[in-house]
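Below is how a single chain appears once it has passed through the pipeline. First comes the sequence as given, then the structure the pipeline wrote out for it. We keep one example in the README because the format questions we get most often are answered faster by looking than by reading.
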Amino acid sequence: MKKRRLGKSNLEVSAIGLGCMGMSFSYGPPKDKQEMISLLHAAVERGVTFFDTAEVYGPFTNEELVGEGSLLFGSRWSSPPSSVSTSLLILVE
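Resulting structure:
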């Protein structure tokens, strides 16, 4: 899997990421949890290290699914994913 560097940082992620919105939000009812965890595992096994999620996809259920799926990888990972992208808004007064 090819890698890409994000901005001027040293963070590298896979050139292909996995958009996780449809796992628990939009495109019909939420998908089967075990099937989506299997999909996450298959992505990692193919070299994907970038997962895109957001708290609005549920709310929070999508991030929890991605988090739970990553915990279940255990020793199957040669190294953990580089990044999980989430939408974040910081308000500064």
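Residues 88-93 have pLDDT under 50 and may be disordered.

See the next section for the split statistics.
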